[in-house]
Every structure is written in structure tokens, then in C-alpha cells.
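Let's study a protein:

___
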Amino acid sequence: AALEAQCQDKDDTACFDKCCLPCERGMDCDNPANNTLRGVVIDDGWWRESEFSKDIYKCESAVSCKGGLCTEGHKGVTCRVCASGFYYSAIGSRCLKCGSFRAHPIAIVSGICLLLLIVGSLYVFKQRRPELFAK
């Protein structure tokens, strides 16, 4: 209760587990008693270097940062780098484990349509210019 009362004071400076942080973007400040540097809840899509850091940064991809930490396969500042054994997938805007192939449904449909277009074009070309296909 004392910490909660202390955290109502907006002029307190940031410190590890005794003073309050001003509520900023990326912080979940529903419970003022948790607004200490150590206890503050970081929203998904936001990153901070450690529980000792008061600086919070927005991640480029919300799926790469969860609760202030990098998700599996991501590392570095704002989780922008793929960890060893992972590769970046532009379709999902995230790092995927090497060896895991996840074809996006749009890519599959596009590939099938392209294949049908090529086969159809060859058929029409053969119908209009049969002499090119004669032996």
C-alpha cells in the first residue's frame, strides 16, 4: 500500500524497485504499484534491454517482441535480428526456424495460377502455330 501511494506521485524519479516510472507508451500501467523499473509490465510489441533499463522501444514487428523480451528466434535491439538457426520470412515478418517450410496460401495459389497460365499459353500457341511443334 505504501508503494502504491508512492507511485501516485508523478514527480518520483525512476529507480530499480523503490521509485515509480512515469507511464509511457509500451507500458501497462493499470496497477500503479507495479510501475517500478523492476515490476512494470511491458506490452507486447515493445522491447527493453533488461529489467534495469527504463528505455522502452517499439519493435518493428509486434510478433518479435512479447512482454519486453524477444520471442523465439529473435534477438538484438528491438529483436530485429534472427538468432542462429533461424531465417527471416518477409511474408510473416518474423524469424522462422531453418528447415521449417511454411508456404503462405497466397504463394501456393499464385504458383498454381502461374503454372496453369504457362500450360494454357503453350496449348493456345500449339493450336495457332502447329508447324513449330511438328517434327
